[in-house]
Design goal:
The chain is an alpha+beta fold. The chain contains 1 helix and 7 strands. The protein has a 4-stranded antiparallel beta sheet with strand order 1-2-7-6, with no helix packed on it.
Length: 157
């Protein structure tokens, strides 16, 4: 004896799933990448159209913010670091090398790159330092000193 199957609307199995394109697995990643870019542009931290964002860490200590961005193979003169309105911006260009023969596969990023980070406190823009060593750009951004509370002596008039 068979029993009827009861379906409740709105259950996970009743929802349509997008068709997976097994013949083009990279297309799924490209679509995900584009969706993330649209989201990041909506919140104001995405790279500009046609550019890519390097991998980076943002660390905060008591006195400074430290950004370490991976920029392998990029020359110092091709990188620009700016700070303004509490935003750190690392931009530049990575040119594609001239090659002989046919390039069969490439996973290296070329063209314009851009990294932006919002800094939550005022900084000392004139004391920012940046160094490039072993393909890692390290930007040190000192925090502005907030007024520290101190005891005020009351004197007799």
């Amino acid at each position: 004896m068979t029993l009827p199957v009861h379906h409740r609307p709105g259950r996970l199995l009743d929802r349509p799933f997008p068709a997976l394109r097994w013949d083009e697995p990279v297309a799924d990643f490209d679509e995900l990448f584009e969706r993330m870019n649209r989201f990041l542009q909506a919140v104001g931290t995405a790279p500009a159209a046609g550019s890519w964002s390097p991998l980076a860490d943002l660390q905060e200590t008591d006195d400074v913010y430290i950004v370490e961005a991976e920029l392998p193979g990029i020359k110092r003169e091709d990188i620009d670091v700016e700070v303004g309105d509490r935003e750190l911006s690392i931009t530049g260009e990575c040119e594609e090398r001239g090659r002989e023969g046919v390039l069969r596969r490439s996973t290296r990023r070329t063209r314009r790159f851009e990294y932006r980070a919002l800094l939550p406190a005022d900084v000392k823009a004139e004391e920012i330092t940046a160094t490039l060593a072993d393909g890692v750009l390290t930007v040190t951004v000192p925090k502005a000193q907030a007024a520290k509370p101190h005891h005020v002596e009351i004197t007799q008039a």
